[in-house]
Specification:
about 350 residues, alpha+beta, Immunoglobulin-like
Length: about 350
């Protein structure tokens, strides 16, 4: 289109120069036509020249990985309030191309390779008419052996007859392939990250690294269905436990080998665990938390934390009985000792 615009300008200039001989009305009309034609294409040129091109390439980061040719790539964008999509197919070198795009617009590239999803933003500056991007992809695997947890933090905040628990895990795929799961959840999805929660957990809320659309409830917790690419992904979630009795025993199975486990207990609640070491208390946003920690825990290990001294709860009747008996015993001893002295 830009070539057509320049051709129109050229023809207009030629008409203007060629029709300037005699100066009669026909020549003047011819020259006006030449000027008008050139002016029209000059005005159209900026818009025509603004068409932008996006050139991309898929790069397989798995050593000796498969070819990335014939992969369908989708370009998503919004035009006049409507979502639109263009598609292209990668060539033998993993390259793809989208032309006739608009500078200043926001685009997103999405694709699926061997069951794992990939995406990248593509944003043109207003003066930019060519953009190149490279998207890393990996061969996929259904073997979960490369998954481990680098850090696992569990935060307890007591409520009225309940306990709010927030967990943060840094899940690492230490391999060189994207893990896409092995156990089917439904006809289209497979479980990737599997998490077993304590009995009675309810009121789930999902934070960073988890999406409501991709999390599926399981008999003893929940599973995520998003693929796990090489590297570290942080996931955050919380839930509520009924804790009407005291002491309350929190039992949580660790699903993966865990390098470091950190337990924080707030609200003035006391805590102890047979498998974790007590650390110095910490202050977080003005709240004092007791701290328990452990290292190098095997997958399948049960983390047990005993919680007591919940604030605002009446003292259990058995504790009152023990206190009264202790006072009677002390009074009896004092009476005997005083009587002997007299």
């Amino acid at each position: 289109m830009e070539i057509v615009a320049w051709a129109g300008i050229f023809i207009g200039v030629v008409l203007f120069l060629a029709c300037g001989g005699s100066g009669d009305s026909l020549d003047r009309y011819c020259r006006k036509c030449g000027v008008s034609l050139a002016a029209v294409f000059v005005l159209l040129l900026p818009g025509l020249a603004a068409a932008a091109v996006l050139e991309g390439r898929l790069s397989n980061q798995t050593p000796d990985g498969g070819k990335v040719s014939k992969v369908e790539v989708a370009l998503l964008f919004t035009r006049n309030g409507q979502e639109e999509k263009l598609t292209a197919t990668t060539d033998a070198n993993g390259k793809f191309r989208f032309a006739d795009l608009s500078p200043g617009e926001h685009y997103r590239v999405n694709l699926e390779y061997e069951g794992a999803e990939y995406g990248a933003a593509a944003e043109f500056d207003k003066t930019q008419d060519n953009l190149r991007i490279e998207i890393s992809v990996y061969d996929s695997t259904s073997d979960p052996s490369s998954l481990r947890v680098k850090t696992h933090q569990v935060v307890f905040n007591p409520g009225k007859n309940s306990l709010r628990v927030e967990e943060t895990l840094q899940v690492e795929n230490a391999g060189q392939r994207a893990f896409i799961g092995s156990q089917p959840v439904d006809s289209q999805r497979r479980a990737t990250i599997e998490l077993t929660l304590p009995e009675g957990a309810a009121g789930y809320q999902y934070g960073n690294g988890l999406m409501e659309c991709c999390v599926v409830a399981a008999p003893k917790g929940f599973v995520d269905t998003m693929d796990v690419k090489p590297g570290v992904r942080e996931i955050v979630f919380s839930y509520t436990l009924p804790a009407s009795s005291e002491p309350y025993r929190f039992i949580r199975r660790l699903d993966y080998t865990t390098d470091a486990l950190n337990v924080l207990v707030g609200g003035g609640v006391s805590a102890k665990s047979p498998g974790l070491e007590a650390r110095e208390a910490v202050q977080i946003q003005g709240v004092r938390y007791l701290q328990l920690a452990g290292k190098n825990l095997d997958g399948g290990t049960s983390m047990t934390v005993e919680l007591a001294d919940f604030p605002g709860r009446p003292v259990p009747f058995r504790y009152l009985v023990f206190a009264v008996l202790a006072l009677i015993l002390i009074a009896a001893l004092v009476y005997v000792l005083v009587g002997r002295r007299k």
